[in-house]
User: What shape does this take?
Amino acid sequence: MPDLPDVTWSDLQLPSLPLPHLPAPDLWGSPAHWAILATLLAALAGLGLTGRSNRLAAWVGVGGALLAFLATCWQLYTLTQIEGARRGAGTIGALPLGDLDAPLRLLVTWPLAIVAVTVAAVALVVQGYARWYLWYDPRYRPFAATVSLFTSAMLLVVLSDDLLLTLVGWEVMGWCSYLLVGHQSTRSAATRAASKALLVTRTADVGFVLGLLVLVAGAGTTRTTDVVRHWAEAGPSPALTAAMVLLVVGVAGKSALFPFQDWLPDAMEGPTPASALIHAATMVAAGTVVLAQLFPLLSVSGPARLLLAVLACVTMVGAAVLAFAQGDLKRLLAWSTVSQVALMLAVLAAATMGTGPDAALQHLVAHAWFKALLFLTTGWLGVLVGGTAMALMASGARRYRVLRHRFGWGLLALAGVPPFVGFFSKEAILGTAEAGTAATGGGFVPVLVLASVGATAPLTAAYCMRAWLVLSRPTAAQGHARLYEPDPVERIDDFFDEPQVVQEAEGVERAEAAISSSARMGTSALMLMTLFGGVVLLLPVWGPQAHVDLQLMAATLLLMVVSALLVRLAAGGVRTRDAAARIPAGVSLAAERGLHADLAYRVVVVTPVLALARAVAWFDAEVLDSWVRGAGVGSRLLGRVGDLTSPRRATPALALVLAGMLALAALGVVTA
Amino acid sequence: MSGLDVLFVAVGLVTAGAAALSVTSRQVLHAALWLVVALGGLAGCYLVLGAELVALVQLLVYVGAVVVLVLFALMLTRAGGVPVVTGVPQRVAAALVGAGTTVLLGGALLSAFGWGRVPIDGGGSTEVAATIFGTDVWPFELLSALLLMALVAAVAVARAPVGGQDDPSQRPDPPADVEAVQGERP
Amino acid sequence: MIRPALPYLLAAVLAGLGVYGILARRHAVLVLIGVELVLGAAGLVLVTVAQTGAAGDPGAAVLTLFVITIAAAEVVLALAVLLALFRARGHVDLHAELDAHGEEEVRGRA
Assistant: This one.
C-alpha cells in the first residue's frame, strides 16, 4: 500500500473571503422572526383570505416561502458581519410560568442558518411544484396552507433557542404531516397511512416530551443554551441519561428509526410534493436538528448514544436492503430516506466533542437537495406515465429526455459519487466516525457506526444502480413513442395562467402532463445544487472537522463500484433490466410490505393494548358499574319496602309522625 | 295549700274533664259542646292566675267565635253515618302517644320550675296595653293584616271550584249524586 | 301564692288529651278540636310564666293574645279547607284508604 498523504478537511475548505458591508435596513425583529412569521402568516392567509381562488392561494403560498427564503439568505449575510457568528434574536415576550424561565428566544448559528436556507429553498420549490402538480385538485388551497405551516414549524425548530418553541414546532409538524399524508382523504389507504403516521410518531413523542420535561425541570429554564450549559456543568447523571434516552426514543419516532420505521414508506400515499417536503428537509430531519442543538448533552450520556447508534445502524442497513427490493420507485426513495436519515443520526452518536455534530447537518443539507430533486422528478414522471410503480417507470428517463439528468444526478448524489454533493457529506460522516473511533480508542459505538456506514455505501450504490438501470432501459417502443410524442414534455409558460389554451389544443391529459415553467425551474435549481452543492459543504463556516482518510475513501468508492457492477450483471438477463427481479417473489413481497412490520406492530402493540382496553372496559362495565347498578337496585328495593310498609291511611301515618316527634323530643330532653 | 291552689285545682279538674270528654265523645255535637266547657275552664284558669285580659279574650275569641265556626263546620259536613272514632289499635296507639306527651311535657316543666310556691306577680292590663301599643305595635298591626288575609283566603278556598277547574261535570257534588251516595249508606 | 306546678301539670294533661284527640278521631272537625286543646295548653304555659315569673314582664301575656289571634285565623282557614274537602269527596273521613299516589281509592261509588 503506498503511503497516502494526510488530508484534513480544512485543507479542502474554501478560503474565507471578506464580504462588503451592505447597508442594512432597520427593520422590526430579526431575519429569523421574518422567516417564521412569513410562512405562518402565509398559512393563515391561505386558509382565511383566499376565498375560492387557487391562483391567490398559490401567490400567498409561494410568496410566503419566497419571503422566508430571502429572510434566511439575509440572515446568512448578517452572520458574516457578527463576531462569533452567533446571533440571538430578541424575544417575542417571555412566558410568565412562575419559577420556570421561558424566554422564547431564537438563536442562529452558522450550520443552522444554512439548514434554514435549505429548508426555505426546498419549501419554495415545493410550493411552486405543488401549484402545477395539484392544478386540478379541489383541495389545493388547504394543501398550500399546510405546506406553509409545515415550513414555518420546521424553521421554528431549526432557529429555536427555547425547548418550548422546539416542542411547539415539533408537534405542529406532526399534525401537518397527518394532514399532508392524508390529503386525498377519500382514499382509505391515504387516511390509513395518515393515521398510522400520526399514531406512531405521537407514541414516540411521549418520550420526546418526557425527555424535554426532565431537561427543563432540572435546569429551571426552557432556553436551550442555558439548559445545555446547566447540564454540561453538572456532568453525567442518571437524570440526564434518562432524559437523553427518552429524547432519542422521540427522535427515533419522528425520524422513522427501527421500531418506528414503517410509517414513513406508508406516508407515500400523500401527494408527491408533500413527500418531497416531509422527506427532504422537514419532518424526518427535525430529529437531527434537535439532537445537534443538544449535542453536548448527547455526547456525555453513553446509554443514549449506544441506543441511538444501535437503532440508527440497524435502520440504516436494513432500510437500504429493503429499498433494493421495492417494486415502486416512490417506496424505494422512502426506504432510502429512512436509511439516509439513520445515517445522519448515527454520526451524531459516533461524533465526539472534538468533531462536533456538523457532519450530520451537512448530510442533512445535502440530502435535502438530492432527495427533493428525486421526489419531484419521480412525481413528474409519475404524471407522465400514470403511476410510480417500477414497471410503469421503466424507460422513463429514455422516453422523456428532460428527466434524464435530473434522475441521473440525483441518483449519483444519493449514491455518494464525486463530485456530487452526497459524496462530500458522506466523506464528512466517514471522517467524523473515524475520528470518533480514534478518540475513544476503538469504542463500540463509533466502530459500529463506521462499519454500518461502510456497509450502507455499497448498498446505496446498489439500489441507485438498480433504479437507474430500470429508468434508462432502452425501450423497444422508443420509435413508437417518438411517433406521437416528438416533443416529449409540454411546458406551461405562464405559471399563473389557467392552462386553457393548452387544454383546448391538446386535451386535458396533455395539459396535465405539461409541466409549468416554475416547477421546472425549481427542479433545475435543485439539480444544480445537487452538482455544485459541495461548495456549500466546503464553506469555512462548518465546525471542526476530522481528517479525510484517503484510504477509506478509496475503499468505499471501490466497494460502491463493485456493488454497482454486480447489480448490472444481475440485471443483465432480465427483460425490464430490474435487478430486483432476481429476488424470490416471496422475499420481494415481504420487503414491499416492510417485512410485515404491520403484523409485528399488531402483535406487539395493538393486540396487547386492545386486550388491555377490553379488560378495562370489562372492569368498568362489570365491576365498577355493578356498584352503581346495585345502588339502583337497592334503592328500588328499599322504595318498594317503604311503599309496602307505609300506611295507606292518614291517621296511622299521623300517629307515626307524632310518635317520631315525641321520640325526638324525649331524646332532646334526656340528653339536655 | 292556699286558697288559690284549691281554686285552681277545682277549675283545672273541670277543664281537664271537659277536655277528656271532648276528645272521647262519640257524638260529634257533644264533643264540640264539651270543647266549649274546656275552653271556658281554661279562661277560668287564666282568671285564677290573675290574667283577666287574656281570660276575657279567650272567652270572646274561642268560645264566642271559634266554637261557633266549629259548630257550623260540623253541620255543613254531616258525616252521614261514618264512624267518628278509629279502631281499637289506633286508639291504643293514640293513647300511648298522648300519655307520652303528657309525661314528657309535665316532667320537663316540673323539673324546670319545681314544686315551690311563688307569688302571683303579673303585670296589669296597663302594662299589657303599653306593650301592645308600644313595643309590639308592628306585630300587632301585622296580626290584623293576617286576619284579613285569612278571611279572604277562607272565602276563596271554600268557594274554589273542585279540582281547580270550574266544570260542572267535574263536580262530585251535584245534588242528585250526593243524595244517591248518602242514601245508599245505612 | 300559688304552686306553678299545678298549671304546668294541667297544661301537660291538656296537651296529652289534645294529641290523643288528634290521633284517635277520624272526623276532621274533631281532629281540629284536638288541635285547639294543644293550643290551649300552650297558652296556659305562657300565661303561667307571665304571672309567676320573677320579672313581671307582660311580654308573655301579649304573646298569649297573639297566639289566640293566630289560632283564630288558623281555624278559619282549616275549616275552609275542610269544606272544600267535603265538596270534593263527600266526606271528611281521615281514615279513608289512599292508593300509592295519595289519591283516595274509590270504593262503592263507581
